[in-house]
C-alpha cells in the first residue's frame, strides 16, 4: 500500500538566483506482516498521510539534488526508520521547467515549461537487499519526415497495407533503464547523455539523416547506441507508440498533394516494445 500523486514544488534560493524542482512522487510499502489485511489489525500500518508528510519533510531538509538521489533518500528513510517495512518503492516524476533566457542571458527567477520529454526515476529496496535504481524519459514526441519506410513484410489474404519506401516516422517514446545496484553516479549527466543518444539514433546525422526500415529497427538502434555509450546502464526498455499520417486526396479540389498536407490517424495506432540488456 502507499501514497500516490504527492505533488509539490521545491524552491531553492542562492541569493537572487532561484532553482526549482516540481515533482510528483508515489511511494509504496510492503510490511513484514499482513495482519492489517487478514485480521484488521492496523498496529503496524504507517498511514498514507504520514508517508506524504515524510516525503515533504525530506524535500525540505535534503532538497532534490537529483530525482534519483531524492528517491534514494526516501527509500533509505523508510528502511532505517521503520522495522516493520520489508520493501519500499518510490517513483519520482519531474515537471519539465527550464530557466528562461532573454537575449541569451539566463533569468534569475523565471522559468518556462517545455514539454520535450518527462524525466522520471524509481528506487526500490528489500530489507537486507540492495537498493536498485531505475531512470527514464517518457512522453518524448519525435518525428522525421523522410528517411523511413516499411517494405518486405509478411503478407496474406488479410493484408491491405501497401509497401512504402518513403514515409513519416512519428511516435511517442518511453524509455526506462536500470543502473543495477545503487552507486555514486552523476545521474544528471547520465540522463542528459542518454537523451542525446535517443535523439541521435532516431534522427541520424543532421545533414542527411539515417534510413529506418521499421519502427522495430529504430527502437533497437536507440538501445544499442545507449548501451555502447553509457556503461552504467545494465538493461533498457523502450516503447515507441506510433503515429501514422495519411496524405489528403485533393484531386477533387483541383490540386496535386505531394505529401504536403497530411492528417494523423487517431486510432488504432501501433506500438513497438523491446527490452535489451548486457550479457
TrEMBL record:
GO function terms (MF aspect): urate oxidase activity
GO terms for biological process, alphabetical: purine nucleobase catabolic process; urate catabolic process
Coiled-coil intervals, chain numbering: none
Record bears the keyword Oxidoreductase: yes
Positions of O2 binding: 48, 242
Catalytic activity: urate + O2 + H2O = 5-hydroxyisourate + H2O2
Pathway(s) it belongs to: Purine metabolism; urate degradation; (S)-allantoin from urate: step 1/3
Pfam families in UniProt: Uricase
Gene3D superfamilies with a match to the protein in the record: Urate Oxidase
Cellular compartments annotated: Peroxisome
Domain of life: Eukaryota
Binding site for urate: 48-49, 150, 167, 216, 242
Transmembrane segments: none
Residues the record lists as binding 5-hydroxyisourate: 48-49, 150, 167, 216, 242
CC per GO annotation: peroxisome
EC number from the UniProt entry: 1.7.3.3
Keywords on record: Oxidoreductase, Peroxisome, Purine metabolism
Similarity comment: Belongs to the uricase family.
Role according to the record: Catalyzes the oxidation of uric acid to 5-hydroxyisourate, which is further processed to form (S)-allantoin.
Protein name in UniProt: Uricase
